Amino acid sequence: MVCVIAIVAMLAAILLPNLSHQTSRPRLEAYAVETAALLKSDRTAAIRHRAPVSTLVDAQERRLRSGWDGRMLEVPEDVTVTAMLPVRCNDRPAGSAIMFFATGMSCGGVIVLSRLGAGYEIRVNWLTGGIEIAPRGTL
């Protein structure tokens, strides 16, 4: 019995420190909320200043950068970022950005933050520019 307890204690000592470095589900949701807030901030800036604002999305590097104030959001390595963005926006190549117009409209797009089959979609409506967060997979 003492040997079994010792083995379990050794396994816990090895595995528990590694678990703290992984992104938890509540933290993944917090990243989705931060992403939506950055997008909403750029949309608001476009409307307020009557000028287009683009939020740059670098899915490979897991980064978003505000086109208005340069604020950067970086997601941890254990979170997968996927971006489904339009190829063209306003008759120009869109690149890797979500553009907001002075009217509040947008070219739209979806950013997915996921980890271990669960995650969140941050959707930008092309017509209204509205931003919503939707759960994805088993949370």
Overview of the structural elements:
By secondary structure, the protein is an alpha+beta fold. It has helices at 2-19, 25-49, and strands at 53-58, 63-65, 72-74, 80-84, 88-89, 92-93, 97-100, 109-115, 118-124, 131-137. The strands form three sheets. It has a four-stranded antiparallel beta sheet, covered by helices on one side. It has a four-stranded antiparallel beta sheet with strand order 4-8-9-10, with helices on one face. The longest helix is centred in the first third of the chain and has 25 residues, at 25-49.
Please state roughly what percent of the residues sit in beta strands, choosing from under 5%, 5-15%, 15-25%, 25-35%, 35-45% or over 45%.
25-35%
* Head-to-tail CA distance between termini: 37 Å
| Count of discrete structural domains | 1
Helical stretch count? 2
Please supply descriptive tags for the structure shown above.
four-stranded antiparallel sheet, single chain, 2 helices, minor pseudopilin epsh fold, 139 residues, alpha+beta
Quick structural overview:
This protein is an alpha+beta fold and 139 residues long.
